[in-house]
Amino acid sequence: MAQADSPVSPDGVSPSAVSISVFFPCYNEQDNVRRVAEQAIRVLEGLGADYEVIIVDDGSVDATGRIADEIAAGNDRVRVIRHERNRGYGAALQSGFRAARKELVFYTDGDGQFDIGEMPALLPLMADYDIVSCYRIDRRDNLVRKINGWLWTKVTGLVFSMKVRDVDCAFKLYRRSLFDRITMESTGALIDTEILARAVRKGYTITQKGVHHYPRTAGRQTGASLRVVLRAFRELWRLRGRIVRDP
Question: Residue 152 sits in which domain range?
């Protein structure tokens, strides 16, 4: 895997040439959204990149939307995409990818469990790959979430013949143009698997890199409920047939 000590653009030129959209799906993240967005802005300003930050408010019922609007009002590089009701994680990612306007698009969750300061180290890898799909180093979740994540990655890898270490790790970098060529259907937890599976079948290349994972310090996790897990497995088998027939 290619490595570099300092970030460069996909063409190997100065960081100022990096054109990147960064977005966060958020659902009831009033205690995290400002911290996450402001950290992203600091990192991107430090790169001197051509950037935008997008906050996707997936129908939050707390103050997430108000805080996001305040951030956007103070910085014209920040935009807010709002769902009037909670439509699900996959729908939030779809909105973020479709709203992105720059050459690269990066996303991480709005819960603050990743350090966006690790994102610049992914940029040099885009000289040789279309996607950087990260995996969590020492995943800081409870045992149930760890087991669910391990099992899901193994099953999806077998179903779609993908060798991905952590399919749902919410720290990924893409060429934005690939979203002009792939379909996104999943509105739930299957979305990461769907995007990677469709991209692989279209011939896009993937590399992987470890990133640190941190405990959630505020808000409440919603992605590991039995209802969400069972829905994802039901969608998986239906989606497989559609991807095989028409990637």
Answer: 15-245
